[in-house]
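Q: Could you write out the predicted structure for this multi-component system? I'm mainly interested in how the pieces pack against one another.
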Amino acid sequence: MKEKLDFLSELGSIGASYATTSLSKMLHDAKLKLTVPQSRILSFSEAANFIPNPEEIVVCVYMRMIDAFEANIAFILPLKSALTLAEYLTSEKSDHITELGQSALLEVGNIMLGSYLTALSMLSGTKLNPVVPAIAVDMNGAIWESILADAGITDFVTVLDTHFSTDQLELSGHLFFIPDHDFYQFLTRKVSGFLLEESK
Amino acid sequence: MNEVFVNMGQIGVLRGKGVLVTVGLGSCVGVSLYDPSAKVGALAHVFLAKSRANSDRELMPGKYADTAIPALIDFAVKAGANRNKFEAKIAGGAHLFDNLRSDMPSVGQKNVEAVIEQLNNYSIPITGKDVLGKRGRKMSLYVDSGIVVVTIIGQESIQI
């Protein structure tokens, strides 16, 4: 299991770096700091407590992909960061997420999550088709449980979390990769493939 | 006031006073049972409609609609409620990612339907509801009065 998680962290690290590079380009090469992705397996109760402030308002761009494996990826910004980013992109100042701001954020999320998928696709040697992203501005807890329920998570869940921030703009957020259970079968095939290659 | 938070999949019970709160209901459904004469209230945060055999339904009955309703009744009766006096209120079952809507019923919709079916099976009247839509909710049951307050971000709280 450990090698699968390590492999998963590696995938996530490269995925997140692709995603934030594309964000940086949209921000005129602002420097983005990334944490090392944490891949964790949470029990259902741990997953229920995973979000520290469930009432906090966040903006979430979300994709559920059904392909060689099924997984959810999400780009989550606290409201303040989302407003900063929306203002930067649209030159429109507002104390709430406007329709224009929302479509700009959806597009940014689409590009970032698309880059994340491109990295996963390359690394795993699997063709992954992009899917239509969705956006929600709501309570963090409501978004989190909706993603878990969408994935049909009932016992444990694997969460790969990368935090990013930049000082040039008051902006920070999270990228989540939440694979369904069949991802492990997929990984087992891939990891044993890699180990075979290495032992040659 | 004594506030008890009911997390995803859990059930909370109070008698006499205090408030049972569940935060961040997205596709999940909050179900409250209240006996006004005993002032006993119970609240479940239901995650999915149906449990499966060999699942954690015994450990966490509040997680599934089919196990949450009988467990709520049990918990409330043990706290002194009369099982013939229950009034139920429900909130949640939203579909947050609105532009991904398909012809299939959403998880939230299935949850709402399953909860209503279970309450009907146990002949518990539903005296208030605020369900479906595309916004997350917070639900609070005030045990001294039986009032349930539902809050959606950016909107005035409502009583159901």
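A: Regarding packing and overall arrangement: Chain A has one domain: 2-190.
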